Amino acid sequence: MTAPLTPPPPPHDDSSHRQTPPSAGAHTWGGAYGQDGPGMKTEVREAVVTAVGVTVAGVLLGVVWWWLAPRVPLVGDAVDGTWVVYLKDTEGEQAIGVDGTFTLLALAFGAVSAAVVFLLRRRGGVPLVVALGVGGLLGSLLAWRTGVWLGPGQDVIAQAKEAGKGVTFQAPLRLGAKGALLAWPLAALLVHLGLTALFGPRDPEPYPQGPLPQGGPYPQGPYDGPRDPYGKSPGA
Questions:
Q1: Is the pTM of this model over 0.70?
Q2: Residue 104 domain boundaries
Q3: Based on the structure, what is the number of domains in the chain?
Q4: CA dist., res. 224 & res. 234, Å (int)
């Protein structure tokens, strides 16, 4: 007697056993972001806000620089009716101290601005990094001009005439080393990069680790050769 032919069983649907990789979210200004970030438009908008905020902070840097920078004493003298201005202390280091004060303050402002931005938005991203760099450079320029504006006038001859012959007066606030303008953006980029590397969100595993679920499309047990369409092994 021949066994009745039976159709092969339907393929097993393993959709219920499949697992979706977890998505890593990061809380930022606008709420929770997915694994792929908030989107380019949102990143650009936040980058613009960051650049503007960092630039405006340059006014505070200028005020602090004007307040803490050492004063450079000058003396005026009239020679044959012509006024000449020279340093009172030729061996003094006040001019170097002015540049050093600006550099140290700019480094501190760069570190603080990077830390604040990281705390508000715990993700990296090219737009945000560019905003920190551009904002830091513009903030340094604004701080430089603010300090010069708050300091003594730039016309030293007029000041010497007003003060009188041999009377000491303060030199205008000047930044001799223009490379100090790069201290803020460099410090901001380095600090933000370090914070992102240490405390930023980690990328999730692309697929869950572990054994395949039971009843999946893969054969279980030892391989005993090919089977015919009716589920029988050859020669059975």
A1: no
A2: 60-72+88-154+168-199
A3: 1
A4: 10
